[in-house]
Amino acid sequence: MNPPTQLGRYRIVRVLGRGAMGEVYEGLDPRLDRSVAIKVISTASDADPDLLASYSARFIREAQAVARLNHPHIVALYDFGEENGVAYMVMELVRGEELAAYFDMTQDFQLDFTLEDAERMTCELLDALGYAHRHGVIHRDVKPANIMLSHDLRVKLTDFGVAHMAALNAAVLDADGADMVGTPSFMAPEQITGQAVGPQADIFAVGIVLYQFLTNERPFRGAGMFAVQQKILHEHPVPPTLLNPLLGPAFDRIVLRALAKRPEERYPSAEAFRDDLLRALDGDTPTQPSWRPDTVTPRPPTVRPAPVDADATRIAPPAPAPAPAAADDDVDATRFASMTRP
């Protein structure tokens, strides 16, 4: 299907990406002579009505969430409309790459972020989330694919399609019910089990991103979505200093607190997380690399993930609660059982 040449007053320049129910274009606003990103969804599709309703609800939710927010590290919303069966959202065009693309480069050891880079970008992400949380918006899908980096490596948080917004459009928010909403490999334990989600779920996801910045690995890995989720629920990650000897012990404390199983054991706010991270670098050499392959402790080869994409955003029934823990089970199982108790 050929893209439209115009939506409203916006001229379509080229396709930037395609999804299951829509596309993203680069466009031009002739009135302001400004390049924009235009995200569209077809409301006249012959797709399954329930699927279309779900995508449409997410699309409206994203527009409402971003419209609440005006922050230098959150992609800006300029306009929203519908024309000839196509709903469209006009947003700030970020010229750069997703953070996921930079992390993928590490397979060939091409990543050259310094520890200062990692700290600054994580703090920018936490600034954006702290602002969103203060305005009643919980992102619920923080992951490298939803973090844009401009050419000067400045963060822009994107994709609020599954965001929770306090006291806004309750009918849409309640449609998720107790479903598992987000990206399985970046979900907090309470997301996996379909419990109430607060700002600490976003903090958990930032902990995963920071871990990858510092070690070039994810803290929870497995052969497929279920295996990853079981590790999130039951296992503690390897401390970052065991994978990257260049790090100081403060980074272990920070990351493991962000990745605590219980929400109340994580940072109370994105700002508290950011401030602790800034203190960890105080007195360190800011230009030392955060990752070098020749300084990392070798590890056995890992099993490749199954074809199921654990990084795709999902809305699905929550994971079933585990059987009652035996008396000699580890501390994670005990905490999980108490966390899921009604």
UniProtKB/TrEMBL annotation:
Ranges of Low complexity composition bias in the record: 305-316
Pfam family, one: Pkinase
Region described as Disordered: 281-342
Gene3D superfamilies (UniProt xref): Phosphorylase Kinase, domain 1, Transferase(Phosphotransferase) domain 1
Alphabetical keyword list: ATP-binding, Kinase, Nucleotide-binding, Serine/threonine-protein kinase, Transferase
A GO MF label: protein serine/threonine kinase activity
Protein's UniProt keywords contain ATP-binding: yes
Protein's UniProt name: Serine/threonine protein kinase
Organism encoding this protein: Massilia pinisoli
Phylogenetic lineage: Bacteria, Pseudomonadati, Pseudomonadota, Betaproteobacteria, Burkholderiales
